[in-house]
UniProtKB/TrEMBL annotation:
UniProt cross-references to InterPro entries, sorted A to Z: Acetalactate_synth_ssu, Acetolactate_synth/TF_NikR_C, Acetolactate_synth_ssu_C, ACT-like_dom_sf, ACT_dom, AHAS_ACT, AHAS_small-like_ACT
GO MF annotation terms: acetolactate synthase activity
The UniProt record lists the keyword Hydrolase: no
NCBIfam families, sorted: acolac_sm, PRK11895.1
Matches recorded under Pfam families: ACT_AHAS_ss, ALS_ss_C
CDD domains the record matches: ACT_AHAS
Keywords: Amino-acid biosynthesis, Branched-chain amino acid biosynthesis, Transferase
Encoding gene per record: ilvN
Coiled-coil portions: none
Designated name of the protein: Acetolactate synthase small subunit
Protein role: Catalyzes the conversion of 2 pyruvate molecules into acetolactate in the first common step of the biosynthetic pathway of the branched-amino acids such as leucine, isoleucine, and valine.
Assembly mode: Dimer of large and small chains.
Length: 190
């Protein structure tokens, strides 16, 4: 009688029942030079990981440094592997997991903000309701006509998600989001 063949003992064979995926916000300080972003993103795509949010900007002009902020979702052990491999790329100076940097309580979670520009078309009561909701969510009107509004809203991604969901039945036409910008709390820098 032959024994059934068992898959090799590898972290890639862990099933979702054994480990939950987690959302992680990574801050990566890199040299501001051509090709760096492609190399960083290549590590994620090579492992089949989606990037939920990506922002990149030069943060220190004199030193030619940029900050890449990535929000991704994955298994903790694979995220740890990604962070380790990111650390080894030559133009990468630091990789900070902002999700883990402060601890577990709400007061130590990273500060995350996103900007969204949202177009809503509507007349009559829907128009009045859209303006009322914008006031509640502290969204600014940046363009308007008798048939539409364009709102600008800044806040946590969950706030923007809620605002968009509420505007959906009122004539939501189009959304443009910047992606998450994030910093750790406290007096120390990354």
């Amino acid at each position: 009688m032959t024994q059934p063949v068992q898959p090799p003992a590898s972290a890639y064979f862990i099933t979702p029942e054994q480990e939950e995926t987690q959302s992680r916000t990574l801050s990566i300080i890199v040299d501001n030079e051509p090709g760096v972003l492609a190399r960083v993103i290549g590590l994620f795509s090579g492992r089949g990981y989606n990037i939920e949010s990506l922002t990149v900007s030069e943060t220190e002009h004199e030193k030619h440094l940029s900050r890449i902020t990535i929000v991704t979702r994955g298994f903790p052990h694979v995220i740890a592997q990604l962070k380790s491999q990111l650390d080894r790329i030559v133009p990468v100076h630091r990789v900070i997991d902002l999700t883990l940097s402060g601890g577990g309580d709400e007061a130590s979670k990273p500060i995350q903000r996103e900007l969204a520009i949202i177009k809503v078309a509507g007349k009559g009561e829907k128009r009045v309701e859209a303006l009322r909701l914008a006031d509640i969510f502290r969204a600014q009107v940046v363009d308007s006509s008798i048939e539409h509004f364009v709102f600008e809203i800044v806040g946590r991604p969950s706030k923007i998600d809620r605002f968009c969901a509420i505007l959906e039945p009122l004539g939501l036409v189009e959304i443009c989001r910047t992606g998450v910008a994030a910093l750790s709390r406290g007096p120390r820098g990354d």
